[in-house]
Amino acid sequence: MTERGSAWSLDERRRRLAEELKHARTRSGLSGRDLGRKIGMSQSKISRIEAGVSVPSMPEVQAWVDAVGAPDDLSELLLALTDAAHGSIQRWRSELSAQGHIQGEIEETERGAARILTFQPSVVPGLLQTADYARRVFESFEEVPYGPDDLAEVIAARLDRQLLLFDDTRTFLFLITEGALRWRPGPPMLLAAQLDRISTLSTLSNLTIGLLPYATQAVVPYSHAFTVYESTDDELDDLVNVEMIHGNLQVRHEPDVDAYRRRWASLSRRAVYGDDARRLLHDLIAEMQAVQ
After folding, report:
1. Which end of the chain is more exposed for a tag (fewer CB within 10 A), N or C?
2. How crowded is the C-beta side of 232, counted as CA atoms within 13 Å?
3. How far apart are CA 289 and CA 292, in angstroms?
């Protein structure tokens, strides 16, 4: 890709890929239905790809390229754009300097998923945070410090996202390490309130909260935080969001997404759930109360 292309945001890369694929099809004289028959893809999925809603896999783009008879230079561009769209980074500094916060984008991704699997080794997941805990988290963000107005806005946006937890058409699964539960960004009672919030939410029928205690033997090393967004629609892509210091890595390539599912499965087998998880939370709450 060009130097300019390497600096494109995720949305820009997806939009450019969608535009180029549509232009390649229309130049070939094929309708969406005709192309679908050639490559074994439904017309609705072709429409989603050309609208930038769905990101095609590398084999799908290769089949598209072959079917429309794209020249070598266009084929190379399309494959490069596809590769970039399946693993791109949202850098905190550039994203936040442009729009203040990205809670709206995260919520849009959450609304497009029927099942969300979150692993957190270092901090309570955002969907479970209390307002006070969230404030301390955002205040500690060093890449782009929040001003007072931005801080109030981003906290409100994070809390608004939590309304999705009460939508029983969606399933949420959380894996949280004891280290994340013990990370204390403020006074002991702030953390005690946060742990109590997790315990309360764990009773929701569409939530499963698994905790990974220090006392449990580890089978795989804890990795960075990640969230898998799964759709029940076969024509919509699953997505993994990986949290890093400088930004979010978004993974769409199916074999890579499957690698995160396997890691999730390995971790989940060592977690405690239900009453056992709530007992651990209550023990930690008592420990915080004793510090006061």
Report:
1. C
2. 6
3. 6
Same domain, residue pair 52 and 125 = no
Helix and strand numbers, DSSP H then E, in the chain: 14, 7
* pTM for this entry: 0.72
Decide which of 61, 87, 113 is a domain's last residue. 87
pLDDT given at position 265: 94
**How far apart are the C-alpha atoms of 267 and 130, rounded to whole Å?**
25
Number of domains in the chain: 2
CA–CA distance, 157 with 272 (Å, rounded to integer) = 30
Q: What is the CATH number of the domain that holds 30?
A: 1.10.260.40
Q: Residue 33's Cα: distance from chain center in Å?
A: 32
Q: Do 73 and 112 reside in the same domain of the chain?
A: no
Q: Which residue has the tokens 């969606």?
A: 170
Residue pLDDT, tens place only, 73-98: 888 888 888 877 765 555 555 555 55
**CB 126, CB 134: distance < 8 Å:** yes
Same domain flag for 65 and 107: no
- In sequence order, what are the residues at sequence separation of 6 or more whose Cβ sits closer than 8 angstroms to the Cβ of residue 5? 13, 16, 80, 81, 84
* Residue 131's CATH number: 3.30.870
For residue range 229-250, list pLDDT tens digits in order. Answer: 998 776 667 888 887 766 677 7
Distance CA 250, CA 201 (A): 27
Q: List, in sequence order, every beta strand (DSSP E) within the chain.
A: 87-91, 115-120, 171-177, 207-212, 226-230, 239-243, 247-251
Give pLDDT < 70 ranges for the chain: 1-11, 86-103, 142-145, 234-236, 245-247, 292
248 strand-pairing partners: 90, 243
Please tell me the distance from the alpha carbon of residue 257 to that of residue 251, in angstroms, as a whole number.
7
Residues 114, 42: one domain? no
